[in-house]
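Troubleshooting log. The previous run stalled partway through. Resubmitting the same two chains, unchanged.
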Amino acid sequence: MPFESLSAETLGDIYVGLLGLAVLLYAILDGYDLGVGVLLPPREEKFRDDMIASIGPYWDANETWLVLAIGLLLFAFPEAHSEFLQSLYIPATLMLIGLILRGVSFDFRAKVAQVRKRSWDLSFKWGSLLTTLAQGYMLGIYVTGLRTDIWAQGFALLAALGVTAAYAFIGSCWLIMKAENELQEKAFYWARRGLFVLSGGIIAVSLANLTLHDDVRELWLSAPWGYLLMAIPVTCFALLVLCAVLLKKLPEAKGKGEWLPFFIALVVFVLCFSAFGISYYPYVIPGQLTVMDALSDANSLRFLLVGTVIVVPCILAYTVLVYRIFAGKSEKLSYY
Amino acid sequence: MDAFLLSRLQFALNISFHILFPTITMALAWFLFYFKLRSNLSTNPVWMRIYRFWVRVFALTFALGVVSGVTMSFQFGTNWPGFMEKVGNVAGPLLGYEVLTAFFLEATFLGIMLFGIRKVPNWVHTLATLVVAIGTSTSAFWILSLNSWMHTPQGHEVIDGIVYAKDWSEIIFNPSFPYRFVHMMLASGLTASFLIAGLSAYRMLKGDDKEAPKIALKTATYTAAVLIPLQIFAGDMHGLNTLEHQPQKVAAMEGLWETTEGVPLLLFAIPDEESRENHLEIKIPRAASLILTHDPNGKVQGLNDFKGEHPPVAQVFFSFRVMIGMGLLMLLVSWTGAVLLWRRGDIPLWMKKVYAGMAFSGWIATLAGWYVTEIGRQPYLVSGVLRTEDAVTGLPAGNVALSFTLYAVIYTVLLFAYMGTLMLMCRRAVEIEEITTEEREMAKAGKMSPANT
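Second attempt completed without errors. Output:
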């Protein structure tokens, strides 16, 4: 068996790293298309067509990162998977219902001149919103270490709003990059609003986070690591301020630098995610279950690692290929 | 009701709903590749029209398959935590390989296939169609490998109740896998063939006299006529394999209580598990022995040899007969259709009605077949290794009841919406198939809503 020399500890780190990568890519990629879904205006059909056209070629593959993340959690850390999802059974079910609604609405609305096109559009919007709220709520409860008391619930609701705002923000940045004219103006407006809510959300969640676990607070507030780590929130806020400036200036820039807001949103996602990762490593469920306690059999992990090492770079390569093929402004919605 | 029963119902509902769509897409992807190739090779635009129509059916079906599949990946952990706890070391990597080697491939290249036709060179688009077809088949490979391992586990060892993988090639190519894989791929081919033939016939019935549905119907009829005898042969081989590894399942399929020689073939009966006998038997003497052992006096083990270890009899018994009945009907219809097409070049009105009526017949046969094999594995989740009741969740029944109700409602709505949309697409097929790029450009320029073209 290849990778025989890797110890269980190393395997655990590799798999938790892969899991993190899958979650991060999911949050960014499906994040923007969920965000576009949440922003869908119920009253303006022409916007809806263009908005949906902008995510058409991508959403399917984007959602696959969630399957990979849940899959990795399932077989690398089965105990964490069942504990996490059994505690969050109802929100997880609601999230799945949301994903089902938006996934099918997307296709039903467009296959043929539908009589009920607007209903499918609305089910796309509300399905997306249900998904983002449920994901945020689950993230919140997860961070508390699967607590169920009133404080944890409050924190989870805050996280639900925060995650929705984050998705809506990255979604509007995506639209700034992909859309033109009126819709782009609208996207600038959404992005400016989203940026405010998001900044508030990040501050609130970060502060609340410090009160949840003693060792997390210690890590962030003590020398010397605390000072180094402070670079993350500082950079994050510098970027958000820069983004606010850009969102004011770009509409007059005649199409230059339209990719910048999306790029900044992406970096902000990566920064927030790494702050989160640093806070809770080596736990897979904060304060409850460590990587090593939850890890499954090393030989099976080695067997899958062979495929992972070969296949994941290929996946990344053809994902990049697709983004290059469809680069630039999205076409009007027309199929095949 | 307790969480065990509800979890089983919910999983059965989910997997039954899910399998409807991959059963179509697995083979439809290859049909699309064929249509695309024909279109590349000929100057007749009809092949591209057929492609355009069916690629939409594919996209819609694929989306339904994806969303119901995502749900499944959650339920392993939520409703059957014991499954991953005990056999996760085998199941996990197989599922992992499916996600890595198939899901991303399908989903990513589907984007090119659906939206990239004017963005990439034609050969890249054809290649993307091929890659999607390979992806769907690869996905079937892994999931059927895992499913087959649950029926005929090997290549593992059990230490302290936990299964550890020993030999991966033994696990992947376990004894029932080749049979199940072939049987399922052929089932998919037949389901897609009958769907194509059925919807094409429906279009003709609605007064569509274009060339496209005629050619599609012909292609599908000939494909079905070739596949169905292969399927009957593959099914027979699969049955023999089951007799070797899971004799209790075969006994339930045959409704055989006592181990006997010269077993009759029951055309109909009502198995009664309380009194352990059949009522209202209609039988052909010695036929079951002949089929199963290739000897009219061959001995077949009965259910009473497996008391407490055999599946519920009636469900398996009836599902099996539904599957066989559907298969024979498919044989009759596809061969009659093929002969008529061969002789007269088209099919008469009554035959079109038969085809339209059988558009979704593949679903019934496939579901019945899966019920035979999956209920036939009970009371085990993994034959001889893990009982279903030992894998169930500790969730409160109320939670499962809530999620079950939500899924049931939403799946019912979606099923009707799906079938309704396919019918609607048939009635408006002309606008789907025949709108050219130029017309689309004009529509754009004219500010008409281009969303529906």
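Takeaways: The beta strands of chain A are 283-285, 289-290. Chain A has 13 helices and two strands.
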